[in-house]
Design brief:
Number of domains: 1
CATH topology: Beta-Lactamase
Strand order of the largest sheet: 2-1-5-4-3
CATH class: Alpha Beta
Oligomer: single chain
Radius of gyration: 15 Å
Strand content: 25-35%
Number of strands: 5
Number of helices: 3
Helix content: 10-25%
Amino acid sequence: MEPWMEHLPAAVTVTDAQGRIVAMNARAAEVFAEDGGLALLGSSVFDCHPEPARTRTLELYAERAPNHYTIEKAGVRKIIHQLPYFDGSGAFAGFVEISMPIPEALPHFVRT
């Protein structure tokens, strides 16, 4: 993982095309510490999710489409981006998940 990504104040988790966790930055290791942190490397992302999230994750891998949503956990609101990535030949290579805190009131701007 690139040095700047390692210290990004967002949790970044990367999986391969089979759903194996292949990279986590420091923030992701902290966020998932109770689940094993960096020990999750090499494990299946599908095994990390209870239903119905497990089924939704399997659907994302079949669709190879981005997914975005917000959550609130322990009083902290976060936006989650799950983005498919592709290798140089265009073949599906896995997903990058980026999770970052967002403020309660998030401004929205329409630009032209």
